[in-house]
Specification:
6-stranded parallel β-sheet, alpha/beta, Rossmann fold
């Protein structure tokens, strides 16, 4: 019985020792008990705390209007990142004020975040000036980053910026085309934009080129500061255009939703909006822009790869392929406008 046995000896500092001789199966049993007890006591320490990734988010809108944070959280959740568990998000809002971008960019960079994400072209530009090391992910909303000097190329962006971009300035021409199809009699269209934004200037130039082929006179109205809004709306009211395009960007338009919508209603102007999708729900006629859910899902994929060690410089920039075209038929009825069936058929959503 004792031919297969183990002996445990414990030596005391005083010089004497204690030896215990057990059969092999008894030794194995005690070893198992000790392993279980040790694991129960040290398991959580051995596995270590869960790493919390810190992501910065820069929205061009006001906090009340923005769905940026919610859409980002939802997209990141699909990749296993849950706020309060392994994710912390720092959100900042530019509130439609261009001068806030450099301030916010500096603030976010100072937080030493793992990555920063934005949909604002002026936000990316401010972040690029603020840091050359913190990874920056574009979540759509930006076009032609090469011409803007943000990246070296779409295939190999270089530097610390990558992500998804809009389909170039062609999206501006597409908005004009859809508006013309919905309002065939429109020959003079107001174009409200922020001329201090290089991207919006390029968009306007693309739309103006498209207007020439459509037989449309495109009249520009610059709104780059709060004091410009009243002047622009007053001028549009006096000029009596047939329709209006309200472009997005870091302008007072972002913080003046109800004021602009009231003006559109009072002026009976058919409108194409690219500012905020919800404007159509509140009375604008049409909206055309990238599908934000798809853009955020793509941005989350980039963030995931970066958090796992990928370098932004090596991640090719993707171009948005899915767009939302929303028509408010209730507004069309109020305007006495009959939207052609061919235009309705192109809508991804109809607000009734």
């Amino acid at each position: 019985m004792w031919s297969e046995s183990v002996q445990f000896s414990y030596f005391r500092p005083s010089g004497w020792s204690v030896s215990v001789r057990l059969s092999r199966w008894e030794g194995q049993l005690w070893a198992f008990v000790l392993i279980v007890l040790f694991s129960a006591c040290t398991g959580p320490l051995a596995s270590g705390p869960t790493k919390v990734y810190r992501v910065g988010a820069l929205s061009s809108n006001t906090e009340a209007q923005s769905t940026f944070a919610d859409e980002l959280r939802q997209a990141l959740r699909e990749f296993g990142y849950v706020e309060g568990r392994n994710l912390s998000i720092e959100v900042r809002y530019a509130e439609g004020r261009a001068e806030r971008y450099p301030v916010i960019a500096a603030e976010l960079v100072a937080l030493k975040l793992d990555v920063i994400v934005t949909r604002a072209s002026q936000g990316v530009q401010a972040l690029k000036l603020a840091t050359s090391s913190t990874p920056i992910v574009m979540a759509g909303g930006i076009n032609d980053p090469v011409t803007a000097g943000l990246v070296a190329s779409l295939a190999r962006p270089g530097g610390n910026i990558t992500g998804t971009v809009a389909a170039g300035s062609e999206i501006a021409a597409r908005r004009l085309q859809l508006l013309k199809e919905a309002v065939p009699t429109a020959s003079r269209i107001a174009y409200v934009f922020d001329a201090s934004s290089d991207q919006q200037v390029r968009n306007f130039q693309q739309a103006r080129s498209a207007a020439a082929t459509l037989g449309i006179e495109l009249a520009p109205y610059d709104v780059r500061a709060p004091e410009n809004l009243a002047d622009a709306l007053g001028a549009i009211g006096r000029d009596h255009p047939d329709a209006i395009i309200v472009a997005g960007g870091a302008t007072p338009l972002l913080a003046a939703q109800q004021r602009v919508l009231d003006f559109l209603s009072a002026s009976h102007l058919p409108s194409m909006i690219s500012v905020i999708r919800t404007w159509v729900d509140h009375g604008a006629l049409m909206y055309y822009d990238e599908n934000s859910a798809e853009s955020f899902r793509s941005a989350a994929a980039y963030i995931d790869r970066i958090l796992k060690g990928a370098m932004p410089a090596d991640l090719p920039i993707a171009t948005a392929t899915k767009f939302d075209f929303i028509i408010n038929t209730r507004t069309a009825k109020a305007l006495g406008l009959l939207i052609p069936p061919a235009v309705l058929a192109q809508a991804t959503e109809i607000v009734q």
